[in-house]
Amino acid sequence: MTAPSKVHLLKTGTMECDQTWLLLKPGATITDRSNTRKEAVWTTCPTHAVLIEHPDGRILWDTGVPQDWETRWAPTGLQEFFPVQEGTTYLQDSLAALELTPDDIDVLVLSHLHFDHAANAKLFDNGKTRIIVNANEHEGALGIDGPFKGAHLKADYEGIDYELVSGDAEIAPGVSVIETPGHTWGTMSLRVDLPETGTKIFTSDAVYLGESWGPPAVGAAIVWDSVRWLESVEKLRRIAEETNAEVIFGHDPEQAAKLPFAPDGYFG
C-alpha cells in the first residue's frame, strides 16, 4: 500500500487583524464591566499550505494570500481589516525554496474558497493539476450575487474546472479530507496518516486557534453556521482522540512559531 512519505508546511502569508475575527472569548475579546474601554487586541494571523510528497504525486492543500492582496481586496475593504505584513513569505516563495513551481503539483485541494485560502488557485489551473473542492462550498461560493460576499471573492476561484467531493473522502492512500462545515458551507479539514510519526490533522478554518479548540470549543466572528461549526469541531476532536493525532490549527500564531516550516523542517 502506498502512503505519504513526507509533509512540508509552507508559509503562505501572514496577515494582521482584530482578534475578535478569530475568537469570541470572555476576558480575551469580550470585556467585563471593569474593562469597558479595553482596546481591541490586534494580532497576527498566519496562513499556511501543506505539501504532501506521495508515491501517487505531489498534493498541495490550500494556497494562502495573493501577492497583489492590497489591490485585489480593495473592492471588498478586506485589506483594511486583514493587511498582510511587509516582508511576508508567499506561496510562490515557499515553493521556490523547495525548487518547485505550481506546475510541479499534481493535486490541489482547497479547504474552502475564502480569500486567504484559495487566492492563488488559478496558478494551478494549468490543465494538468487536479483541483478539488467540496461540492457544497462550490455551490455556495459560485452562487453568490455580485463579485464578492464576505471573504469569498469570485475572481479568486471562478472559471476553474474543479473536481467536486462530498463528505469525508480519500484523496490518496493515507491522505483524506474531513467534511467540517460551519465556517463556510463546505469547509474541509485534512488528515494525513504518516507511517513514522502518525496522524496529522490540519483543521484549516474549522478551528482557528488552540484557544478555539477547548474543550469547550470557543466561537469566532466569522462563522456561517454556529451549530454546524460546533458539530465539526467535536467531529475533529473525536477523530483526533481515536487516532492520537497531532492537530494543526488554521491561523494560530503561537502554534505556528513552533512548527517545522519548510525548507528547514518537515513531518516525516
Automatic annotation (TrEMBL):
Entries under CDD domains matching the protein: AHL_lactonase_MBL-fold (cd07729)
Domain Metallo-beta-lactamase, residue spans: 46-251
Cofactor: Zn(2+)
Transmembrane in keyword set: no
Keyword S-adenosyl-L-methionine annotated: no
SMART domains, per database record: Lactamase_B
Source taxon at top rank: Bacteria
GO MF annotation: an example: hydrolase activity
Keyword list, A-Z: Hydrolase, Metal-binding, Zinc
PANTHER family the UniProt entry points to: 102 KBASES UNSTABLE REGION: FROM 1 TO 119443 (PTHR42978:SF2), QUORUM-QUENCHING LACTONASE YTNP-RELATED-RELATED (PTHR42978)
Entry's family note: Belongs to the metallo-beta-lactamase superfamily.
Name of the protein: Glyoxylase-like metal-dependent hydrolase (Beta-lactamase superfamily II)
Organism field: Amycolatopsis thermoflava
Taxonomic lineage from the root: Bacteria, Bacillati, Actinomycetota, Actinomycetes, Pseudonocardiales
